[in-house]
Amino acid sequence: MYTVEQSVFLVRKYWQTGSFKACQTAFRTEFGERRAPSKCCVQKLVKKLETTGSLLTQHAGGRKMSEETTHDLKEALPESPSKSLRRLSQETNLPYSTCQRAAKKAKLRAFPVSCLQELLPMDHEKRVRFCLWIKDFLTQNAGILDHFLYRRSMVLSERIRKLSKHAYMDSRKPSYCA
Q1: Dihedral in degrees, nearest 10, Cα atoms 85, 97, 77, 109
Q2: What angle do CA 164, 175, 92 make, to 5 degrees?
């Protein structure tokens, strides 16, 4: 493996002289090396420079996502916030991981959707009646909540987890449905 400076020197000498022997000799005298690069090595460097335009090693990292794909997915996520990434992946015929990366690039996170019902003035009396009833019930049965929460917490948390929907939004403000 040669440094960038040595690679540039080799390619320049080859282009100037057109001879591998002259290139090897100049390399030995310039860098004080006993072993000069082989003909094959010089040919590879020249070919690399001609094809890529660079002598640097190219990054072999992950797949690149086109700007068009990123833009399309950034627009699709907020349009239907309750749609899962898996469903989006199926509809767009893109891999799930691409949808994940697009959501991450757009800084969109999944948050539970909270559905609320509008409270009307006529609901006030019903709410007060319910609050008084639950207050009386809890004072008469002091330990009922501990028993209920202990026995049902596992079942309820599992049901809530399964039923929860997620919305993709760019802030931590909750999303509400009508």
Answers
A1: 80
A2: 70
| Residue 23, C-beta contacts closer than 8 angstroms, at least 6 positions apart | 10, 13, 14, 17, 42
Q: Which parts of the chain have pLDDT scores under 70?
A: 59-63, 110-115, 146-178
The pTM score is: 0.36
With vertex at residue 51, the alpha carbon angle to CA 46 and CA 53, rounded to the nearest 5 degrees, is: 80
The residue behind tokens 């090897």 is 24
The amino acid sitting at 30 is: E
Q: What is the gyration radius of the CA atoms in the chain, in angstroms?
A: 34
Please write the tens of the pLDDT for every residue from 147-175.
Answer: 665 555 555 555 555 555 555 444 444 44
Instruction: Report the sign of the C-alpha dihedral through residues 108, 109, 114, 120, in that order.
Output: negative
**Amino acid identity at 70:** T
**What tokens were used for 6?**
């040595």
Q: Provide CB contacts within 8 A for 145, sequence distance 6+.
A: 138
Rounded alpha-carbon distances, angstroms, from residue 138 to 38, 80, 128, 142: 89, 42, 15, 6
